[in-house]
Amino acid sequence: MSESEQRTTGEAKALAKEAAEELLARAGADSFDALVVLGSGWAGAVDTLGSADIEFDAVELPGFVEPTAEGHSGRVRSMWVGDKRVVVFMGRAHMYEGHDPMVVAHAVRTGIAAGASVAVLTGSAGSLRTDFAPGQPVILRDHINLTSRSPLVGADFVDMSEAYSTRLREITHGVDASLAEGVYVATSGPQLQTPAELQVLLQAGADVVGRSIALEAIAAVEMGAEVLGLSIVSNDAVGAVLEPFAEERALEIVEQRSHRLGELLNRVISAA
């Protein structure tokens, strides 16, 4: 089946099950407790997240594609975080790379098919608020999916009213009480927003804007996993209207904080 011929949810989950079986065999594991998807610039977080077990190229598993976006690795790592066995995808596929939503959500589905009951989705985003500064992590309490796409085809209705786990958010606040919460708006990209579009997003209640997380969260909820979303502010989205967006600088901001982000995830997952 070509990527242009979108799979049904059932077909996507069957492919994820096949990938999960291979993942578990390579890791010598019966099951994983949690999965982590690392966003742009987050790859260094694995150094402080936990103890590495095995690492290899994700494309060696069925259904995976090589990320082409800047700041994303195509590696997958099995790790121990405390007494939790965790699979970490060190990059992700995006729609703006030309991928179907089923491909975008494949890593999450694979991790859950391998037993993960907790899905930690990370990313970088532009801030729509003057009090959210670059370098600041934000816990996601909700999202607005403006991609006009879904990773669910031929599935039953899925309740998204509590997509981002209250329990996991409370654990994260317990680890770092200074963290703010916000609403993430997902766009398809790769273009940034016009001033009028930014105004609409603000009026809709969005706090940060990015090009990932939402489709993965939908797939995770449909499969019954708890979701924690954590995005680090990489740039001032509103200020980009006055000053051109500098991708290298935005990536550098995240990379400089990746080790501390790994420590944060370590404490959250250990307590989850």
Model description:
By secondary structure, the protein is α/β, with parallel strands linked by helices. The protein has one domain: Rossmann fold (3-Layer(aba) Sandwich). Helix content is 32%, strand content 24%. It contains 8 helices and 9 strands. A 5-stranded mixed β-barrel has the order 5-8-7-6-9, surrounded by 4 helices.
Short descriptors:
272 residues, globular, 5-stranded mixed β-barrel, 9 strands, Rossmann fold, alpha/beta
Could you outline the blueprint of secondary structure elements for this entry?
Layout: H1 9-27, E1 34-37, H2 46-49, E2 51-57, E3 75-81, E4 84-89, H3 101-104, H4 106-113, E5 118-127, E6 137-145, H5 166-175, E7 180-186, H6 195-203, E8 208-210, H7 214-222, E9 226-236, H8 247-271
Parallel strand pairs: 1-4, 1-5, 5-9, 6-7, 7-8
Antiparallel strand pairs: 2-3, 3-4, 5-8, 6-9
Helix pairs in contact: 1-4, 4-7, 5-8
Structural class: alpha/beta
Number of strands: 9
- Provide mean pLDDT, rounded: 91
What is the string of SSEs from the N terminus onward? HEHEEEHHEEHEHEHEH
- Helix % is 25-40%
The CATH superfamily is Nucleoside phosphorylase domain
Tell me about the largest β-sheet: 5 strands, mixed, barrel
> How many DSSP helices?
8
- Give the uncertain stretches in residue-range form: none
Strand order of the largest sheet: 5-8-7-6-9
Radius of gyration: 17 Å
Task: Determine the strand fraction and express it as a percent band.
Answer: 15-25%
CATH topology: Rossmann fold
Task: Compute the separation of the termini in Å.
Answer: 38 Å
